[in-house]
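>> received
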Amino acid sequence: MMKQSIRGDRVFYIVIYILLTVFFLLTLYPLIYVVSVSISSVEAAAAGRVWLLPVGFSLEGYRMVFNNAKVGWGFYNSVIYTFFGTIINLSITLVTAFVLSRRELMGRTVLTFMFVFTMWFSGGMIPLYLQVRNLGMLNTRWALWLPIALNVWNLIITRTFIATSIPEEMFEAASIEGCGYFKYFTNIVIPLSGPIIAVMCLFYGIDHWNAYFRPLIYLNSQKLMPLQIVLRDILVANEINAEDLMSDSMTAANFGRVELLKYSLIIVSCLPLWIAYPFIQKSFVKGVMIGAIKG
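>> returned
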């Protein structure tokens, strides 16, 4: 009976490993394909001869991207929006989550419901735009920060983490030593919340870095446009230029350049996130697992 159980476990693990390997390859292939096309030759991209590895090494796509002066401004703006936006989001989320996690807070349930209510019902895009305009934030960086200063779902996750992962006895011991709420929050809660802070930084950072619709609505100055808008404008402009060409040979060549440009833009826009993720992966996994176990 024991041998049958061991054999059954081995078969189960073999099947699991095979499925995971298949899923991994299916996920990895699009990434390899995008990278391969972005560094292939114009002719290979136009003919569709790339299916796994690069064909005819070329950096033409990246040259077209970085030769545009707007890319530098867009990259700078995206870094500013992501860095300061994440700080604003994280500060408000941590403070609000800590307050809502305190059991002695009167009306805590009502306040939590008021936050959650905004996840079900909102004023809509037009009232929000009018509010941003009335506050004088149109065509300013604040329009991309303040309207999304707090994400309710992230607030709930952070509040649950603080309430379940930091023992209440720690606050009682600290209060006996004369520690107030502010000092307890800054000296104890924040240092112990490293995993959830890493998770929130990743969530908020990705949202700011990939922001497309908000700057499209609130901004009209080219000097304030983030990288996503700049890359979109470059791609659209090159597609239009390729379509305007009448010669078949020129059309094919420019079609190849447009294809290279598409995949090069994908790599340029995603590369900073790929570089940053390994540094916070351990804390990210730990934070997610703690929320899954104790939430």
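>> The chain has one domain: 62-294.
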